[in-house]
Specification:
With 233 residues, the chain is α+β, with helices and mostly antiparallel strands. The protein contains eight helices and eight strands. It has one domain. The longest helix has 38 residues. The radius of gyration is 21 Å and the shape is globular.
């Protein structure tokens, strides 16, 4: 009798968990759809299995397998006075692990992102992100990032890119103050696109927050940098 009760209890918990998960997912879709409607954007809940190919330059979208974007928001972002296409939403990929008994387990990973085209395709690639433990270990073995005069900023942020002059021009003292004050997310510029991510999924209300954050980031780019990028086009 006891095993039957335990099995029944487990089944009930599974059903309750599935119902809760379904309702939470629907509430998220409703909230993101409302954000899109408020801003005049488009919301598409369906899975986009071509997303990782379209943005293959970002390794975030090339991890694991079973990859797809979903809960996608399509809108625009103003950069240097120009309207640039924006896409944001959730992304899924899966990995597998095998224990000592040979049993394989599939792990599902989800994170939120914000992508935008840039008006200047020739902008150099660059990554700015909060510094982590592995960055400090890498620095110990000589895999260092770009250092800045501000010791506080260099200790808290990892900046990398082949064009150091460009990095120094963009990450000027006022930009450092902005990044330190906002504890900015990970930002990567690559092949004319910018990607903003953080670990895990954002709450629906965080999507507009990161759009505003990215707008403020570009508002701080010096005019001489923007003029130089325009001249390269």
């Amino acid at each position: 009798m006891l095993p039957f009760i335990i099995i029944a209890a487990v089944l009930v918990l599974i059903v309750v968990g599935a119902i809760f998960s379904h309702r939470a997912a629907q509430a998220r879709r409703d909230a993101l759809s409302a954000i899109a409607a408020e801003r005049g954007w488009t919301f598409v809940a369906d899975r986009d299995r071509d997303h990782d190919d379209h943005f293959r330059q970002f390794r975030n979208f090339r991890q694991g397998n079973g990859r797809y974007a979903y809960n996608s928001l399509f809108g625009s972002l103003e950069v240097d006075g120009q309207s640039c296409a924006l896409k944001a939403g959730d992304f899924h990929y899966q990995t597998q692990s095998t224990n000592s008994k040979g049993r394989t387990t599939t792990h599902h990973h989800h994170f939120s992102y914000l992508l935008a085209d840039l008006p200047h395709p020739e902008v150099p690639n660059m990554t700015i992100r909060p510094e982590g433990m592995f960055d400090k270990i890498g620095a110990f073995f000589g895999f260092d990032d770009i250092d800045f005069e501000s010791v506080e900023f260099s200790n808290k942020f990892h900046v990398s890119g082949a064009d150091k002059r460009f990095a120094y021009d963009v990450v000027h003292p006022r930009m450092m103050e902005f990044l330190l004050a906002t504890r900015g997310p990970t930002l990567a510029i690559c092949q004319g696109h910018v990607l903003v991510t953080q670990s895990g999924k954002w709450k629906p209300e965080e999507f507009p927050h990161y759009v505003e954050w990215l707008t403020m980031f570009f508002d701080r780019w010096p005019q001489h940098v923007l003029a130089d990028l325009k001249s390269r086009a």
